[in-house]
Design brief:
It is an enzyme of class 2 (transferase). With 241 residues, the chain is of the alpha/beta class. The chain is 47% helix and 16% strand. Helix 4 links the parallel strand 3 and strand 4. Bound molecules: erythose-4-phosphate. The site of erythose-4-phosphate (E4P) has 11 residues, from helix 7.
């Protein structure tokens, strides 16, 4: 499963991109506004930084407007994927833009029938919103699993992009459900990388390294020292208290 980051904040993208794990970025109108940046300028900066697939969403509600906007944003960078809402106009625009060789991400998907329609309209990606489905008491991960199963059975090549990811277990469950991509908020990336045993283990190695012959008396710093969780666990993973 590939990882995209779900933000338009350049500093967040820069930090996670440096880890070497990103295949793309998803934005939406809310995320663009939250970035405080000009739409075109920020999309182009992100595309140059990350490459891969960069989703930029149209804001027209009619098919003609969506097609016009989609054609325009697709010219901003070869990496742009035009994001379209899962409405009749969005499907119509998806079909038209796909036939012009423009990549599309059909978003705001909440059901398998919607996902099947988007695939038939030629979507490159379908974005089921796991977290928002969970929010209404349904099972967002099961939706992803069912969409992937229906696509595999039907020989459909549209990629399943797990969206509205709220925590690291959503990422794990999306991978196990067969998602091709998960788009993950910055905060969840920072949660994914942390483990108290990694931090405590590194702290222990650094303390021992400082004891070698000829080492300076200065205590080496590891990230362990900045992680409040690491303080409660010794180098072997046992509790210090
Ligand atoms: C997907 O591309 C959307 O930008 C995003 O995942 C929506 O997530 P939210 O439900 O946390 O707003």
């Amino acid at each position: 499963m590939e990882f995209f980051i779900d933000t338009a904040i350049v500093d967040e993208i820069k930090e996670i991109n440096a880890w070497g794990v990103l295949s793309g970025v998803t934005t939406n109108p809310s995320l663009i506004v939250a970035s405080g940046r000009d739409f075109r300028e920020v999309v182009q900066e992100i595309a140059e930084m990350v490459g891969g697939a960069i989703s930029a969403e149209v804001t027209s509600l009619d098919a003609e407007g969506m097609i016009r906007e989609g054609q325009e944003v697709a010219q901003w960078s070869e990496h742009v994927v035009v994001k379209l809402p899962l409405t009749p106009a969005g499907l119509q625009a998806c079909k038209a833009l796909t036939s012009q060789g423009i990549k599309t991400n059909v978003t705001l998907c909440f059901s398998v029938p919607q996902a099947l329609l988007a695939a038939r309209a030629g979507a490159t990606y379908i974005s089921p919103f796991a977290g928002r489905v969970d929010d209404i008491g349904w099972d967002g991960i099961d939706l992803i699993r069912q969409i992937k199963e229906a696509y595999v059975l039907g020989g459909i090549e549209t990629k399943v992009l797990a969206a509205s990811i709220r925590h690291p277990m959503h990422v794990v469950q999306s991978a196990l459900a067969g998602a091709d991509v998960a788009t993950i908020p910055y905060k969840v990336f920072t949660q994914m990388i942390k483990h108290p045993l990694t931090q405590a283990g590194l702290d222990g190695f650094m303390k021992d390294w400082a004891k070698r012959a000829g080492a300076s008396s200065e205590t080496p710093s590891s990230e362990a020292g900045t992680n409040p969780q690491a303080g409660g666990v010794d180098a072997q993973g046992g509790s210090k208290k």
